[in-house]
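ERR on first pass: missing label on line 2. Operator R.T. fixed the label and resubmitted. Corrected input:
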Amino acid sequence: MLRIIAFLFVGTLLYSCQSTEQLPKASETRTLDTVIVNSEYVLPPYQPTPNKSWELLHTALDLSFDYSSQEVNGRATLTLHPYFYKQQELKLDAKWMQINRVTTDSGKALNFEYKNNQLIINLDSSYSKSDTLQMVVDYVAKPLSNTDKGGRAITASKGIYFINPNGTEANKPTQIWTQGETNFSSCWFPTIDQPNQKTTQEIKLTVAEKYTTLSNGILEFSSLNGDGTRTDYWRQDKAHSPYLFMIAIGEFTITTDEWREKEVNYYLEKEYEKDARNIFGNTPEMLEFYSNLLGVEFPWDKYSQVVVRDFVSGAMENTSATIHGSFVQNHKRELLDYNPDDIIAHELFHQWFGDLVSCESWSNLPLNESFATYGEYLWYEYKYGGDTAALKLHGNLKSYLRESSYKQEDWVRFRYNEMDEMFDGHSYSKGARILHMLRNVVGDEAFFASLKLYLTRYAHQSAEMHQLRLCFEEITGEDLNWFFNQWAFASGHPFLEFTHSYDSINKQYSVDIVQVRDRESTPIYRLPIKIDVYTRSGVTRMDYVISEERQTFYYDGERPQLVNFDAEKYLLCEKTENLSEVELQFKYYNAPLFLDRLEALKELNDFAILKPESGELLFSAINSSFYGIQLQALQLSYKMNQIDSLRLRSNLMGLSNNDPNPKVRAEALNVLANFGTEDEIKQATLQALADSSFAVIATGLSTLTQVDSTLAYEQAVRFKGSKNATLNYQVLDIFSRFAGPEELDWLINMNNSTSGYGKKAYVWQFHKYIVRLNNIETTNRGIAHLKNIYFSSNQNKVKEECLYGLKEIQVLIRKNANSGETSTAETDPIVDDQLAFQIEFLEELFNQIRKVEKDESLLRILED
Ligand SMILES: [Zn+2]
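pass 2 clean. output:
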């Protein structure tokens, strides 16, 4: 019901802005009494910009750590003043803490109340905005007592994380790190945990001497305490939001680069020290590129990047100290398959968009995330060229359109249930496309001048979307409400249908453009568009503005060979073009952009039988110099197979063996598995197993299982224990399907070599292996192993997988007990006893979990 009610409402508003002549027919016959108001429907709550009763000025923290209880002993000294109105009470966010004492800076104890994760301090008198106060809070932060659940984007809410705190997990370093976004910094220090607060900071960290520390700003000094500990003193004099505070503590090695006399550091585990520049080495060039492009120099004292274990998101742009998940920690050979530049660029661009100017509320998250995502595009455009960048932006469009099939929200939305909902394809992918469109609408010079104005005007402050709009209006001198209203404060996207015809008598070409839409839910968009008309005498560029539901444009002259709609390919839309096969061929060979060729290939796919010229085009496309075209063309290989199977297979053999791009080699192998003979597949896969790329080897193993599982298993044994996650996953997959009980010990030990999503996948593969063997002994050990993983993991996604695995094993045991059959014996009373024991053991285990597990989503798995 939500959609119907909401859409009718939106429709009414839109129509009321137009003259009655323009009212579409459908709305005239629509009557309100057909609307069924469902009383159960609850509009998500309005999420206002947080009120500012107080304004933070400075935050000083003095922290030490108790690893065994996973607690932080802290003293926070906060300097702040009433924002506008007089205040006699100060409310601080302070989650899952024990508050020991609150005093003024002169040591006078203050009365306080601590409830609902808030510290309410009663002040001795009323203070005005000209008064500056200092409060000292002595506290213990207890993240283990936190029972809040995590979200989809940030998967936990503890704020501060102790990794392997007692050193009991093999192959895992002991670390402490923090994750503040969205409002989790208040889990490790009392603050006003809102993005519209800005504060300078100093942090003292007392740690064992063997540990390295990282925080925002500059490490001013370190002092040895003579008891095996050291205190590091970090300071940042430039104000930023509390959610951007960070600390990381562990045995990191530091590799140092420099940019304009600022330190650029990479903190990695010892094993990856020699790979630091292979992973992060483009950072100084990115700093130079973004500083020049924006006309605003990188604003912070230094830039560090640290890789931590078991991170709860992909990466986080803490001011001057970005945290990355361990998936970016790769050896040189692994970097052949994965270039982490996109995530490095994304987090770095946030240092301007997010950190220097923060979104003032999470409703305005696109001011952070859309820019960071577009920052990836800008870096790609500069470093790797237009084709690679366009492929990336095309990926953003696909990702948004996928999401839009089940979720359409305003880009800036003030109603949502959970903050985590804002971290979606709208804030990231759609936003990047909107910014790209805005850039094309106003032009490069105006776009970057507007961004410079926005960044300088709101530096070290927070902003909302309208402030960005006003900067663009100030620079361009033009009203841009139309753009922001249809893209930022409305949902959805246009669906455009282009048709064209030629009147040979009058020598006139016409282009008909229809905005196909649900009149109740979709506005009529205003879309500046460029159309290129190709004739024998050349190309003519035409600029139009689409602003009506249906518009026809005319062009006088000879019959065009091609009319290329949205010639710059920047519109955020879905479209149909109705081009003939010959026009598509012309477009592929003559239009200038990668996206022209990509569109031509996609549309050729719609023709049931292709002309021979299109076949030639496809064979040329799989051998293109750009992998984006090759990968798209490989998707049409079944058409090439119809045209000339032998030629296709010979091409695929060549590509899988020799193409310079590992993605193409792997995909060619995948395709060959569909069309090749057994001998061809074997030959190509065996060659692939000697490839430099782990992804190609993994594809080789996977392909080999389709023709010869025994050989695939023999080959997989060669790669046992690979540290590469992709290859390891494939080996585990083959072992789970074909290995015997003799590999159980090895499979159990593999747990120590996996982490994050790799561990989730491992648990899934492991349980498949146990279920397939269906053997009393292995099942016993399998259950014990999954139980161990469950209780030692701090990650819900891993725990979830353990429970699913154990539940499936339970089903199997019950089935065995009922049928009296296992692979080891038939109707054996000893076996019956063992099965009964297993059933009982699992029941007890599940009861134990029910008692101690606080997370409801995990408990639900047990009840399903
Ligand atoms: Zn981001």
